[in-house]
C-alpha cells in the first residue's frame, strides 16, 4: 500500500494546492494528515475544506485543538497565539466539530500516525534529538511511526540498542523508525519548499517530497490579514 502522509498545513492554501496536485499524480492508496490545519497563514477555512475532502483520516494537532481548547494557546509563542486568536475569529463554526472528531493517534498495518510524539500524544512533545526519540520508541509497538509538529523532516532508526538518524533510502525491514514528514505549509529546516512523505508499506520504501509553491503570494496574504510580519517573513526562508 502506498500511503501519503501530510502534516502542518497551517492555513497555507498555496502550498496545499501544489501538494494535492502532486498527490493526484502519485495516486496513493491512502492520504493521512497529521494535523495542524490552521494558524500562521491566511486561509484556514479553504485548507480545512480541501483536507476534509481529500484525506482519508486526519490526526488532531495542537493548533487544531487550540480552536476549542483555548488554554492550549497560552503556551504558544506570542505570534502563534495572535494567529490562533485570529483563526477563532474567521473559522467556520462547523469546523470546530470536525476538529473534535480527530483522534490523537491512529494505527494500521504496523504503522502509527501521531501529530507530535507517541509519548503522551495529547501533550504535544517534540522529537528533536536522540533522547526524545528513545522515549518515543519506548512508547509505541508498531514498526514505523509517522510524526509532524516540528516542521523538520528527519528519520530516526532504532537498531537495538542504537538510535541514529538515517536517509530516506536507508530503511531496513528489520529495524524500527520514527519518520517526520516535515511541513506542507511552514517548513522550518531552512528550505522553504513544502514537504510531505510517501511510504510504500509493501516495498518498505519512504520518499520525502519537496516542492516549490507560490510562497510570496502566501506571505503577502499573511500581511494583508494583519498577522505578525514575522509569520510572513519566515515562510520565505523556511525557518
List the keywords.
239 residues, Purple Acid Phosphatase, chain A, domain 2, 6-stranded mixed beta sheet, 5-stranded mixed beta sheet
Can you describe what's shown?
- This protein has a single domain, classed as Metallo-dependent phosphatases (Purple Acid Phosphatase, chain A, domain 2).
- The protein contains eight helices and eleven strands.
- It has helices at 13-26, 44-54, 62-65, 78-90, 94-100, 130-137, 215-224, 229-237; strands at residues 2-6, 30-33, 57-58, 105-108, 111-114, 144-147, 154-159, 162-165, 176-180, 194-200, 205-211.
- Strand 7 and strand 8 (162-165) form a beta hairpin.
- The chain is globular and about 50 Å long.
- The mean pLDDT is 97.
What is the strand content?
Answer: 15-25%
Strand order of the largest sheet: 4-5-6-9-7-8
Distance between the termini: 33 Å
CATH superfamily: Metallo-dependent phosphatases
CATH architecture: 4-Layer Sandwich
Helix/strand order, N-terminal first: EHEHEHHHEEHEEEEEEHH
Content-based structural category: alpha/beta
CATH class: Alpha Beta
Number of strands: 11
Mean pLDDT rating = 97
By CATH, the topology is Purple Acid Phosphatase, chain A, domain 2
Query: How many whole angstroms does the radius of gyration measure?
Result: 17 Å
Count of separate DSSP helical elements: 8
Low-confidence segments, ≥5 residues, pLDDT <50? none
Whole-number tally of structural domains:
1
Q: Shape from CA axes?
A: globular
Amino acid at each position: 500500500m502506498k500511503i501519503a502522509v501530510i502534516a502542518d498545513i497551517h492555513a497555507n492554501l498555496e502550498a496545499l494546492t501544489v501538494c494535492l496536485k502532486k498527490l493526484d499524480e502519485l495516486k496513493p492508496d491512502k492520504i493521512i494528515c497529521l494535523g495542524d490545519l490552521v494558524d500562521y497563514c491566511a486561509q484556514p477555512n479553504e485548507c480545512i475544506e480541501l483536507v476534509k475532502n481529500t484525506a482519508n483520516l486526519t490526526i488532531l494537532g495542537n493548533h487544531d485543538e487550540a480552536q476549542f481548547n483555548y488554554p492550549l494557546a497560552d503556551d504558544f509563542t506570542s505570534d502563534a497565539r495572535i494567529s490562533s486568536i485570529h483563526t477563532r475569529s474567521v473559522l467556520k463554526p462547523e469546523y470546530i466539530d470536525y476538529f473534535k472528531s480527530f483522534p490523537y493517534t491512529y494505527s494500521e498495518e504496523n504503522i502509527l500516525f501521531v501529530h507530535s510524539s507517541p509519548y503522551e500524544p495529547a501533550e504535544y512533545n517534540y522529537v528533536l534529538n536522540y533522547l526524545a526519540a528513545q522515549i518515543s520508541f519506548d512508547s509505541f509497538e508498531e514498526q514505523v511511526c509517522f510524526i509532524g509538529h516540528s516542521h523538520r523532516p528527519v528519520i530516526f532508526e532504532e537498531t537495538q540498542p542504537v538510535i541514529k538518524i538515517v536517509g530516506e533510502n536507508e530503511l531496513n525491514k528489520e529495524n524500527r523508525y520514527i519518520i517526520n514528514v516535515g511541513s506542507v505549509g511552514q517548513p522550518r529546516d531552512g528550505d522553504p519548499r513544502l514537504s510531505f512523505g510517501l511510504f510504500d508499506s509493501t516495498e518498505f520504501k519512504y520518499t520525502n517530497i519537496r516542492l516549490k509553491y507560490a510562497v510570496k503570494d502566501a506571505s503577502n496574504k499573511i500581511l494583508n490579514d494583519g498577522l505578525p510580519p514575522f509569520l510572513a517573513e519566515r515562510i520565505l526562508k523556511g525557518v
